[in-house]
Specification:
Elements (H helix, E strand, L loop, with lengths): L7 H15 L3 H7 L4 H27 L15 H5 L7 H8 L9 H33 L7 H13 L12 H25 L3 H13 L18 H21 L20
Helix pairs in contact: 1-3, 1-6, 2-3, 3-6, 6-7, 6-8, 6-9, 7-8, 8-10
Amino acid sequence: MKSLNSNLPTSILVTFGFLVLLLLPFEPLLSLLGFGRFVSEHLGDTLKNLFIVIFGVVMIRRFGYRRMSGLTKFRPENLYLIIIPFYFILAGPAEYWLLNYQFHQIDPMHILVLLVSTLSVGFSEEIIFRGFVLTNLIEGKSSGQSIAVPILISSALFGILHFLNLFQADAHIITVLAQVVYATMFGIGFGVILLRSGSIYPIGFVHGLINFFSSWDQLPGAVEPTNVNDFKTWEAFISVVIVLPFFLYMVSQIKSISLNGKHQIGQATEEE
C-alpha cells in the first residue's frame, strides 16, 4: 500500500467509515414512528447521508484539504465540463419511455422525498470520494507519479463499493458488474471535473440529479412493464456504453490538470 500511495490506508479507513454510517438504523426508527416503507427508507437515507457529509467535512478540515477539496469555492472554473454530464439526466426518462413504464399514480410528496434523498446521496458520495479520498491520495502520491493514479484509485474504491448491491433481493450479477464499471468511470470523470473546476458543489448536485432521474421506478405507484427483466442484461451493457464518451473525454482532460504547490491544483483553488 505504501509503495502505491502513502495515504491509501487513510483513504480506505475513511471509506470504511462511510460504510459504517450507511448502517445507521434510521429506517426502522422511522417505521416505528408511523412512516410508510418508502418514506422511511428514503428519509432514513437522507439522514444517513447528512451524517456522512458531516463526517466528510470534518475529515477534510482535519487534514487541511478545504481548498483542494472544493469546499471553499462556489464559483467553479471551466463550467462547460460540469454541463457535459447533464446528458445522463435524460437517460433515465428515456429508458422509462422506451420500456413503457407508467407513472400515473405517483404521489407528488413521494417525488419530493426521492429528490431530497438522491441529492443527499450525490453530495455525500462526492464529499467522501472526491472531496476527501481523492484529495488525500493526491497528497500521498510520490513526486514523480502521475495525477491519474490517485484519480484511478479513488474511483476504483468508489466503484468496488457497488458490489454491495449484490446483497439486494432483486440483484442481477450482470447489472451489478455494470454498475461497478460505470461507477468507476463516473468517479474518474467527476474527479477530473473537481480538479479542473475547483468546486465540489456542482458535481454533488449533478450526481444527485442523475440518481433522481434514474430512480423513478422506485416510486410507489410506478408500474413497470411485465417483461422488464428481459432487458436487464441489455440495460447493463447500454449503461456502460452511455457513460463511455463522457469517460473518454474526461480522461483526455487529465493532462490539463497541473499541481501548483501544496493543496493547490492549477487554477482550481482560490484563497480562503
